[in-house]
Amino acid sequence: MIAGADEFDRGRRPAPGPLPAIRLPRFQRFRLANGLRVLAVRHDNLPEVSARLVLPYGAAEDPRQRAGTALLVARALTEGTSERPAGDVAEWLDLLGARFRIDVDHDATTLGLRILSHVLDGAFEFLAEVVARPAFDAQEVQRLRDERLDEIASGLDEPRIIASLRLGEVTFGQHPYGLAPGGVDETVREITADVLRDYHSRFYRPSGATLILVGDVPQHDELRQRLETVFCSWRGDPDGAGELAEPTLPETRRLWAVQWEGPQSEIRIGGVGISRADQDYPAVQVMNAILGGLFSSRINMKLREEKGWTYGAGSHFDARKRRGPYFIATAVDAKATVDAVREILAELERMQTEPPSDEELELAKNALTLSLPRLFETVGQVSGRIAQQVIYGLPDDFWETYPETVRAVTRADVLRLAGRFLSTERAVIVVVGPARDFHAELERLGPLEIRDVHGRAASL
Predict the structure, then answer these.
(1) Which residues contact 16 (CB under 8 A, 6 or more apart)?
(2) What is the pLDDT of residues 314-327, one digit of tens each?
(3) What is the CATH topology of the domain spanning 28-231?
(4) Choosing a second label site near 129 at 20 to 30 A (CA), which of 160, 347, 387, 412?
(5) SS3 397
(6) Integer Cα distance of 36 and 27 in angstroms
(7) CATH class of the 254-451 domain in this structure
(8) DSSP 276
């Protein structure tokens, strides 16, 4: 007999451990003479540095008839500069042993470098040259444009991509969030080297940009001096960026169907969600985990486990500077298409009327908080989280207070936010599948528009 074994209740779930502690080192903060803001975090247990240059402009600043411009500008940065051709830029990057990546979304453009600390000065020089003095050679731009057109064409062979693209279009209409950051065929074809130069000259400016450095970086005075030397010739203020309007919900339910022969239907149901800086964002994450963010969520349990119509169903809130989309995504047996849409709408209604159980609430909170330290294990992960704070204007202590904020969410909060965001009367529904077989039944849920894969009006 083990001592104390009679006191151990194997029928009760063990209590969760203490809340994980997230303690970021204090930032070194300063601004260079050209206006570039610098945030540096010393994390010198390894001789490496993660550098991210965040420009607060992205695809939302694209000219609508040339959507995809911001992405091609970023891709062209390493395809030659005023000092060296594309091949030499690639060789320079190889000699540094650096990993370079770009991220362009609607709200921002981020240029990332992962390097060893002994080549930090060379990395600064590389970053300063490609961001300030790209060549935008006409032949290189044509190649990049053709590659992007191939990517777009390939995506239109994937029902899941078609469904997601059309959902954004019908949800946001003429708002910049309505187009994918990479543009569409007809807009990308209009992009020339001059278009890229114009975007670059307007938005790639140090004033408003932020350089984030995490890792084995020098102390304040030395770091500042080294950065001033390298970035001093990059100057100017952004020109022409207006205030991005808040998107609005459609006035009534919208239904689109795209004819696509196959054994399954891709379903997207959603609407306008939350902005990243909204104080309710952590509570929305809890609500979403219960709705469709976990394997044990209500939608997955209904469509997969109970009905057996799908291999998986989930939900997501894509929070942005302004209210981004939320959506439920799944692929179901085509014969169950309309029934699946009805079940999803019913679950959205249930979220607004039936509060989560104590177990649902606890599972959601644990999922969001207990694994949080794993998101801060590397210098790249830390710089990525700081970049989110920069882009969305989050407070310095956002991640440190996040676990407690999540733990404070109540059942009443979940109901309140479900009522705020999960309206079924103004929901957007997009189905890509054999619409000829189910369009008559789908029309019972509201006026149905038939579209082709590009989103243009079509017929069956």
Answers:
(1) 362, 366, 370
(2) 999 999 999 999 99
(3) Cytochrome Bc1 Complex; Chain A, domain 1 (3.30.830)
(4) 387
(5) coil
(6) 15
(7) alpha beta
(8) T
